[in-house]
Amino acid sequence: MRVVLHFAAGPALTERVGRLAAEGIDVAVCPENDEPLFTALIAEADVLWHVLKPVTAATIQAAPRMRLIQKIGVGVNTIDLEAARAHGIAVCNLPGTNARAVAELTLLLMLAALRHLPHLHAAVREGKGWALEPAIQDHLGELGGRTVGLVGFGAVPRILVPILLALGCRVIYTARSVKPDAPIHYRSLDDLLAEAEVVSLHLPLTPQTETLITAERLARMRPGSVFINTARGGLVDQAALTRALASGRLGAAGLDVFAHEPVDPSDQLFRLENVVLTPHVAWLTTGTFDRSVDLAVENCRRLRSGSGLLHRVI
After folding, report:
1. In the annotation, is 280 catalytic?
2. Which partner from 17, 51, 109, 209 sits 20 to 30 angstroms from 151, CA to CA?
3. Is 261 marked active-site?
């Protein structure tokens, strides 16, 4: 069975997937920016292990042997599902495998945004750490005691809630429906935005959620509040978010995802001191890889044996 891992895997991951050849699963690692190599590999592949680069109809058309597109992660908005369905290709994802990693980076971004960590880090490196301007004192906040609003209540928020409660936060959530087992209180989206001091997004990107956070909804947020996004950049009107941060209407933001990736280095977000940025790596830990490879390999085995696939989307 020929598998293409479309990702610039590090040495340890490359070695691990290479050992799968012993059981007849031949995994070829292909960085996402190596188009010639990908074109050659996909033409002979039975399975694609897909991370972030979109799987288009043209990609699927160029893969006549393809039987399975395995998303390494949860969101399948980067896969042309209709094209996959038309070619009889199964699509599976891996819910929960990256939830702990995303939850932990979400918490990290909350804390880093509130404490203006990038500014402090840069000041120390430049030899100015012990000569900070007094005005920064007015902007260094604590997470404990704040109201945190979680938009969505899937695997990541369920990990975050007990951590936030232990830190002394008051936590509320919104979702498509009330969750009877949730240990925190439900709010409508607009009410949550108006009430929370920290807002964190945890939704898939779908036609219904695209640009869910508009300029009008950002204006509902409390002055000086913190905005966190480790879900999908397309959930937010990024230009409106940038304006709200630049004006000081929002106090800070922690962003791992963006409307267009990679982000243009000239983007105004890069010039704002009240923003903490990471390059869509909330999911990226050795633990995520361990859990993801185990399940992806199991689906390869099931595909080969004709058994039912795990977490099948189509």
Report:
1. yes
2. 51
3. yes
